[in-house]
Amino acid sequence: xxxxxxxxxxxxxxxxxxxxxxxxxxxxxxxxxxxxxxxxxxxxxxxxxxxxxxxxxxxxxxxxxxxxxxxxxxxxxxxxxxxxxxxxxxxxxxxxxxxxxxxxxxxxxxxxxxxxxxxxxxxxxxxxxxxxxxxxxxxxxx
Length: 142
Fold this sequence. Notes:
Layout: E1 5-6, E2 12-13, E3 18-23, E4 28-29, E5 33-36, E6 42-44, H1 50-53, E7 57-62, E8 70-71, E9 76-86, E10 88-89, E11 96-99, E12 106-107, E13 120-126, E14 129-132
Antiparallel strand pairs: 1-10, 2-9, 3-9, 4-8, 5-6, 5-7, 7-9, 9-14, 11-12, 11-13, 13-14
């Protein structure tokens, strides 16, 4: 596994990104991959649980607190659901980006652990840019 290093203060949507607004259903950090948990809101995605592995976007802002890098349940979030996001470092351009077994984190390697769900949320457009483009198929267990 190669977890992507994210600098929360540097996370921001880039030109062409499609952003949605939603309510946090759990606490987390800007830069988290998130999934929509029915009526409970947006929660950090997690490859350990099938439903939670199906990420639909990346948190780029917390509206309740200007410049905030963390969020709590009930906070309003801006979430990029498609398009480029400046966020990390050390990614291999062109490589796939997966939901990590560590809640909210992104990884450039699919998990080889039995029971994890490998869900692709996008690809590395550059060493520091993730292009969010969630898979349309169900996550696969290794």
